[in-house]
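Quick one, T. Sequence first:
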Amino acid sequence: MQNRTRHIRNELAQKIDTENPDLSLEQLAEDDYEAYAAAVSGNYDHALAGGLDMRDYRTSDSVAERQGSDDIVVYGIRKNDELVGGFHVSNESSPEISYWVDKDHLRQRIAAEAIYAATRHMKEAVGSHLRIRATVRKGNQGSRKSLHATGYRRTGGDHADDVYTHIGHKVTRPEPKNEG
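Structure tokens:
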């Protein structure tokens, strides 16, 4: 299990570009930790309501510890170089993604673009056979829609959460936001 984690970590790019030229995912560097921790703290209640407990990311020391571990890679989601969210790739028996978008940047398809870019990148770098999971709180309709739009399908769950998995080769590009 640990060797697979290292394999995935070694295959992940420092920066993952999205189809939107203003949006990218960049692995956090040491000089990003303080800003990331501040952004997490400012969005903690919002993320927790969506089912993502980010207590391990509320100080720069805890961000450094998580980023330095063998079992997770933390990306900042940047829009025009502004930190607008986070994207985490962890690995137990298969990679699991989690993500959050700043409450002031919701409904801009940022999560869908990040999911699409990261999933496509992992499938290309590690192999199309890779099964990637995401767990979503049942009431989090935005995340459910973003995952479904990029080819993830509900594969399980319990009373509180749904589990989505991307299986297969095709990664679906989310439809552009209708500005109509």
